[in-house]
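Same chain as my last thread, 211 residues:
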Amino acid sequence: MASGGLQLLGFVLAFLGWIGIIISTAMPQWKMASYAGDNIVTAQALYEGLWMSCAMQSTGQIQCKVYDSLLKLESSLQATRALMVAAILLGLVAIFVAVTGMKCMKCMEDDQVKKMRMAVFGGVIFITAGLAALVATSWYGNRVARAFYDPFTPVNTRFEFGSALFIGWAAASLAVLGGAFLCCSCPRRETSYPPTRGYPKNAPSTGKDYV
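reply #2:
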């Protein structure tokens, strides 16, 4: 029962992490900057994500523009996109694999060993998906930090971490943690020792000696 509860907890955490990875990938707030001109009316917030860039005016109006061409994007942005999409696809595969190996599911009940292996394999895929998202968000955040502290970067174009990065870091951590719980939910096999042979007992002496 304890391993079943740990398995369910791991799946829930990993699933929430996968949902968070999808939300982080779709959000345009991967990096943000605020700019105010001479008049406060011209103040605006700039956002850039993996798929589009947005500008929010002081009046609350938001205008977004999808990136025109894939070939015009930086190679690092393309790699970040690929890692996040790969994390989403791996998480989708991990869900189907882990569900098959869950103890609360009736599929593959005839072979409990294969069922436990499926749960562990699903946990490994969840960990891989979480690591892919963690690498993507950390790499992007490192680029944002380096550009921010670069003295040659204009003040009005210095971006900071956006909310999508924090959601991505939290989601990746949940996916890794949930996958680890799934891997640890497999009970260890008890070592079976061969039964010890007892020494034959000496027959009671009858007091008669045969020559």
